[in-house]
Amino acid sequence: MIGIFDSGLGGLTILKSILKTLPDYDYTYLGDNARAPYGNKSQEIIYRYTAEAADWLFQRGCRLIILACNTASSKALRQIQREYLPSKYTGQKINVLGVIRPLVEEVARLPKIERVGIIGTKATVGSQVYETELHKLNPDLKVFSQTAPLLVPLIEEGWIDKPETKMILKKYLRPLKTKQVQALILACTHYPFLLPEIRHFMTKRVAVPDPGEIVAQSLINYLQRHPELNIRPTSGPTVRFYTTDDPVKFKQLGEKFLGRKMESVDKIEL
Ligand code: DGL
What are the boundaries of the signal sequence (predicted)? Predict the structure, then answer.
């Protein structure tokens, strides 16, 4: 079973693409909606929350967890991979992956790319993880970052089509447009819910890759390279959803975001 974790509903943008690309696997989605947003919290808290979520998903039988959350990927993933898993799950064939590396590789590989924009939460932008990773692949890239702290709460409220959200979105995007970036990285898994507006505002001159599609492709490669995890397609694949907050609200918004029915959503405590 593959676990997909986010602070809230944003990871559904990643799950949606994964379900399209790899429909025959079992998935468990966990949204820590009760404690979202993570993006304004300290590294220590983000790490603790992410480790608690990982423990819960491992206990449910997941052998691979995708942190479908840039904030958790930028603030907790490295420590989880290097310290937490080796000490707590010594010798077990399990792993936790993030969403940053596949996006960085995609954008750094674009032809004639010189100027890249990043839009993300305060935690992700403050970590400078995207700059660091992009510069490892292409030291000449000029990277411009923008925090967008109001977008996650607006999306968690389901305010996707509201004019107020569009207005705030434009305010965040304008500085990046002015910098004439050639590609824009959506460094928060909530933002792809606004992908059509973002692409429209940035115009066709700017490449805005869909993070879900990129993560789904890299998951295919990862599963091929890691048969030892023993994650295999099943004849009756299941997708289960769990939230730490109100399951009714999660289902209502989640089905709209995911574009398919959720058979059940259960509330859990971390
Ligand atoms: N989807 C998370 C991310 O990608 C949201 C962050 C938050 O909870 O603030 O960063």
Answer: none
